[in-house]
Amino acid sequence: MNKKVNTVLFILGATIFNVLVVIICFILLMFIYARFLFNLIPEEVSSWSFTFIFIISIVASFVAYRFLMKYLLKKVDVEKYFDPIFGKRNIKKPGS
Known about the structure:
mainly alpha
């Protein structure tokens, strides 16, 4: 496979990972809310719970994605396997 195919597959995989993490976090937080917090929170506040749980799930997915990206960037030579998305990098060579 060439760099462009690797880049497209990586973006597709990262998007799927992000969506799955949001779904898993949302289900987990909804379970915790329904099991433990539903009776403790007043009715006026519980109407906002769905919104807060959804926002927390999105934030958790960004944190997990950032953690995974930092790990991958340490392990994989990005320039060797992936094509730049927004154009070529201008790398100055020594002596130029």
